[in-house]
Amino acid sequence: MLTLKSTFTALLIAAASSFTVSSAFASTKYPLAIENCGAQVSFQKAPERAIGLGQNSAEILLLLGLQDKMSGTAFWPSKVLPQLAEANAKVKLLSVEFPTFESILAENPDFVAAALPSLVGPSSKVAKREDFDKVGVPSYLSPSTCLSTKEVKDQYGSRAQLWNMDLLYKEIDELSQIFDVGDRGQALIADFKAREAKLRSSVSKDGKSLSYVFWFSSPSPSADAYLGGKNAASGFIADVLGGRNAVTAEAEWPTLGWESIIAANPDVIVVANLDRNRWELDKPEAKIRFLTTDPAVSQITAVKNKAMVVMDGQAMNPTVRTIYGAEQVADQLKAIGLLK
User: Fold this and answer.
1) Is 12 within 8 Å of 34 (Cβ atoms)?
2) Residue 121's pLDDT is what?
3) What is d(CA 147, CA 55) in angstroms, rounded to the nearest whole number?
4) Residue 272 vs residues 226, 227, 244, 317, 340: alpha-carbon distances, Å
5) Which portions of the chain are predicted below pLDDT 70?
């Protein structure tokens, strides 16, 4: 499980419940209107019964110290960050998987922050934004996941440009404005910026530029693998570490057969660790067992060189965990001598 190495962030979380907004950052003026993923969202006051729909949305709200303003969370691929466990325990868990629309409304929410289009998008099986509009509940979708589905006909869409942390900072800033905790938002953003700068500067510029494949999961060894796309958060991690994503598809979550992965022949394979129990290959041990025992797959350069590293699967989504995932990968590659 990931840890937050920054003392500043640890102090921020510890103090969050008693944090008072100072004059260093202007208080939110209501009514507040925000343009979010093509929709106008308005707030007459700070929400008091928010739903964190999706792990990233929930963890941002918790990082901002808003657990007392939350009436529920749902959809957790991984366990909550350890530093947030105490705060999270105060918030009702609706489901670790997709909740029902009815279960959300039963909590009488006055705001829903969603991490993924599969949770509030036009083809979501949970609810669409207009469903929340009809019952007077404003909804907010992570700017990092507002992607076009024109080229890729699935709800996660495709990304033409490499994701970067600016979209995450926009999300943190807007959520902190919505709840009138702007100082907390700016402090959190400053900490993330420092973490990224430190990590980029710690990777040797004269080392080999490594190619990566980020394997999220697969229903079975014979099935296609769900991989992090070229410009997704996985590509960002490769870039931070001075390398590149060996997957060239612009789809956010392309599925590739192992023949194509073998042909890509990455230097490093990053396998996701997921706490959910959907598929056997959610577990990193099962992934590595397949990689090392399959006659063809075991000949990939990364496997032959034992350059297989484990990362929190949630970090493969564009989230607050992405930079922590990059730190995880960097630490493991430095330990085996692939990064200086």
Assistant:
1) no
2) 85
3) 19
4) 10, 10, 18, 11, 23
5) 1-25, 148-158, 205-207
